[in-house]
Fold these 4 entries.
Entry 1:
Amino acid sequence: MMHLPHLTFLRSFEAAARHLSFTSAAEELNCTQSAVSNHVRSLEEFIQRPLFVRHARSLSLTNVAEAYLPSVRHALQEIDVATRSVSQRPHTRKVVISCPFSLAENWLPDVIRDFNTTHPDIDLTVHGTVWSDVEPSVSDLSITIHHVDEASPDMTKLWTEKLTVVCAPDYQVNGKPLRDPNQLGDAHLIHILGRPAYWELVRTYFGLTELSLNHGLRTNASNLAMEMASRSVGCVVLPKSLTRSFIDRGLLIEPFDIEITSPWAYYFAAREKFPTPSVQLFQNWVLKAAADLKQVRV
């Protein structure tokens, strides 16, 4: 970057040009008239051009000054705006995150609880979403779910999602506890609208060519599906990140081992390239919690 004139010189020039008076500029800048005069003279020496015609009791702009002034004024305004923004941001102790209801109710609460314990002075707001995110301007951070082939480069995948079949501990098929994939043909299947691939992947995984996927209960809400499964309405296929809290509470079980990678995953993105310190703290916290979850699965 080329050598630039001192910012003080530019501020004195702009004020003097606006008032057409070194005295008035000095009063605005809270300095002496001689200081403003010296600043302007130093700027004139720097650019090697006169900026003012100095009359007995007034000033007038030279052609050079008239051409130079708009750019200087615009630059100073940009600096002022940027400085105010930076100086105010550390005092903003609020973070807004948007997250699908399913993950917000089953994984995010533990993340928020631990974050609040360490950073009780930062206020969090959570917007639950269904299928699509809220308006981009609403949240500082967003978690969304996308097919792995459709995620954009600016998104960070939180983890590789695995699917599992879950049911109530006492759920039975033809009078026997569900423990064998071959029993699924007679089980009540709960389907997630928009995710028919879940049961199709299970059918392919176990080679259940006769398993019909045309019947059963359907819902667009993963949590509702798990609530119904926990009441022995049927069994459902869902990402393990969602079923974990129900399994930990003893409401659901995984009746048999299964290892299927979901074609959908959760992705994380920040609205601003340079977030506030509070947003950066929570962003790092979320990413670490996601990394910890990946390690547990390994």
Note: The radius of gyration is 32 Å.
Entry 2:
Amino acid sequence: MSIFEPNLLIHEKSPYLLQHAHNPVRWYPWGSEAFEKARAEDKPVFLSIGYASCHWCHVMEEESFEDHEVAELLNKHFISIKVDREERPDIDSVYMSVCQAMTGSGGWPMSVFMTPDQKPFFAATYLPKTSRYHLTGLMDLLPRISLLWKQDRERLLKIGNEITDHLNTDQRPSETVSLSEDVPAQALADLNASFDNVNGGFGTAPKFPTPAVLLFLIQQYKLCGDKDSLAMAEHTLLRMYRGGIFDHIGGGFSRYSTDDRWLVPHFEKMLYDNALLLEAYAEAYACCENPLFPEIADAVVSCVLNELSHPDGGFYCSQDADSEGEEGKYYTFTRDEVLHVLGEENGSLFCSLYDITDRGNFEGKSIPNLLKQSPFPNDHEGLKRMKRTLYLYRKKRTSLSTDKKILTSWNCLMISALTKASRIFGREKFLAAAQKAESFLDKHLRKDDGRLFLRWCDGEAAYDGQLEDYAFYSLSMLSLYRSTFLEEYLEKAVQAA
């Protein structure tokens, strides 16, 4: 058997797994075949979990999984399994708990070493090929683990048993706890203590939008009249919009900001982030009527409909952070480039408004943003035409990879957000998009008996729905019922519940 023969991911549907199908690493998808192979050959298992639009997953693939030296070590001493964390959230959840228990943190790509009976004994996130700074490289780590497996296996098994016992204990149901007024009060106190009064958001870099927190703050205003809570939410929503985490050319939000000002994001766009942020902007507008929020909502929905929509109505998972191997290339501009596309007069105006300079603000180029603008520029028709021209230009200049999996849970979050936003902003097209997406789910991801599939991709539905699929599906059906009063939505919600 050739050490670099094609791997088994070539038969998968997941775009993330297919990205790795031609690696020299002999990858297996998650399943009994891989673990039986590990037992038969008496080898430990290397599990790598990531997702298609993850920048550091691409880095690790390029550095290590496309490297023949790393592949030779993995193929000789390990059975290697690749998992798409969006397609298998159940597996990701288990091993993320392992990673957090062993390292104190987690993230993707996730790297886990385990026994053939799935007991983990080492976990980490991104690992470079060779050791540098505080990171152990795979070329040092793989031989060390292989040697321990052969010469000191009892030590690894002991670690695996301890971690497994810890997880089993940690996941036992706890005693019922009543929710008192002290709990939200303590949460508000903690949020106040970590709130960034200047830039919005909580804590320091990296900063995540945390729309669930913003929705909690808005809820506290609605329930208790707490104006400070609403002010924190509104300020954060405005500052995120002003920053580069918001795509001022094509709409939509990136996953998180690498700095505390929301300027430089990791550029991947996720469906679930934009769904929850759309809901947050809608709920905030219902309380404070900030005139910018309808425009932001329109831009988010336009991004989803233009970039993340199946022709028949379902919503795709994400768009990549990288273009042609370079992070952010799709989203950044030089000043000369903008002047060339828009002309001297319009180009100069656009650059002055959106902080596009000769020096740049990201690796010699500029991420459009409004952080230096106060008050905000009026988004008049002329400015909208400039954005449209730049949008069409950048689509021709370079392209983004789109993960075209359609997940039941994430689609239901977007359906709920669109339906709520349609009521609050009076946008009929939002409701129409939600109903079209629901029709897609009903046709492709819902069985005749009402049970759900987890994902649809390339014409195939797969994996039984999990708890979050049923919870978010019920939520979306109730939201549609509130807007349409069509009984079929209420009946589907009851059946799913």
Note: The two ends are 50 Å apart (CA to CA).
Entry 3:
Amino acid sequence: MNVPKRRSSLVTYTLLLSLLAPWAPATAGVFSVTPVRLYMTPRDRAIAVTLTNEADTEVVLQADINTWSQKPDGTDELVLTEDLILAPPIIKLGPKARQVVRLALLKPADASRQLTYRMIIREVPEASPASGIQIPIALALSMPVFITPPVAKRQVSCTVQRPEAKTVGLQCGNTGTAYAQIREATLMRGEQALAKFEGGIYILPGASKIVGLKSEQAITAGEAKLVVTFDDGQSQTTSTTLP
């Protein structure tokens, strides 16, 4: 994912948190953010976000908010936006300090589909007094923000591509109006798991991605069933034929 940079001399390591439980605090080494994923409804004007300085020294944090979209092939695109604002946008935290800030929506929400953003909170590094060329490094956290009306739903379908010896590719597309995150996908034959994927892949509306299922043994042709489990714990099962 390409994260916009305001300074060419600033190298930012973005920690993508899609695999973490939404109730667990995200951490970038010197600071943490709770919650990891931010959910709003069209009625919400603002929600609370808690920032904690885990270090023994003061830290300065900066927040940028981007519209988050995906190309049809699933490639992420981020564009800076003023649809939402974190107040205040610059936060100074003393050692081990904690502060609650507000993420506010400044534009009307869409009543028919989900709006998706990513809020990137990064450490603002201090200039190094050492001689020579120094590149200050800032850690950053990238958190998804979802503004979801009641009618917005995911609609995911997956087709099995030709399997290799120990790998099966799934082409999964989302034709719905809300994001989908695949946490697990298992190809079954009877009670036997032929191949499995475990992780956390986001598929935004209108996009598709290839999910690789891996096996410890060769995969043979024949009938099978595919069980896809999403981040909310719901699953969908479909029958398929392996070529």
Note: The chain is about 0% helix and 55% strand.
Entry 4:
Amino acid sequence: MAGKPGRRGWGYIRKLPSGRFRAEYTGPDLQRHAAPTTYSTRTDAEGWLASERRKIELDVWEPPRLAKEKARAQSVTVTTYAEKWIAERKLKPGTRAIYTSVLKNHITPILGTVPLRNLSAPAVRAWFAGLGTDHPRRNSHAYGLLHAVCATAVADDLIRSNPCSIPNAMNPPRKRDPIILDVPEVASLADAIRPERLRALILLSAWCGVRWGEVSELRRKDITKGCESVNVTRAVARREGEYLVATTKSGKGRSVVVPPHIREDIQRHLDTHVDSGPDSLLFPAFRGGHMNGRTFQREYFDPAAESIGRKGLRPHDLRHFAGTQAARVGNLVETMGRLGHSTVKASLIYQQIVSGRDAEVAAALSKLAQTPQEDDDDE
């Protein structure tokens, strides 16, 4: 092929009808590779071939198309890559809305225009410090999102290591400890809440451990015959003024056996306050549809809690009551199943609260202090 038009010592250069030049060569993979663009002069085309051959000699060669894609990816900004990351994930509508909001309001304003490849650990630390300390939960969510995005970038070979390396940033300390009621207080709270149609909501939340988003989406069809169990398969979340129904937090449904002592209350609620259709909500808003969580707490729950001397109690604290009660009579697996925990971490907390081992250890230490110690010099 020495005398064939376009053939040269290494590679090929072909003049196009437009007058521009296209350069090609056969790479180490035995595939034909063309320059990512055409050139106005033969000299420029030869220069590209020379640079490709140099890469082969230095053993740093990669297919030109791959190199071009990698260069394009490396120039992408944090926001652009994060938006793509969110779009490609299988997320619940509510979770997608949260991620989009967190990115828009707490990541993009500071880090959004930074090229992903230039994002450094010091830059992440400075950004995280700038979020302040008034909203630790929000900050942990923002950091967690950025950490997940960068972890995917590492897997995609866009960055060498994850720049999000702040210890415990995704596990902030609680701003408040939950208020855990005792059994009589739960009964008093259920009696105190008004209107009376919300009594069953308190009982289901406390004794069955359903989250707010789960209990406010319960429908007649979710209660089995005789109110023996409640099927928790959906949850609702309010995002930007709209109510979005999706799966539960763990992504899995569960059937929770209703304690016999509240079944009569649940049946009375069904007979008195719930429409006959299977899709009728158990606890609709006054004008229909899903109840607003903030409205429920401010107008109904807070006055009832204050009336029993538990000002500051929150609806989610009833789930903590459910956790501690389940841990008193069930093992770890049973507690996880009842509360819908996907990991052991949360259920372990309830097991530790009710185990009593800390008190036993303290008592044993006191016994050690009271027991006379033998003198080594007695022998």
Note: The chain has 15 helices and seven strands.
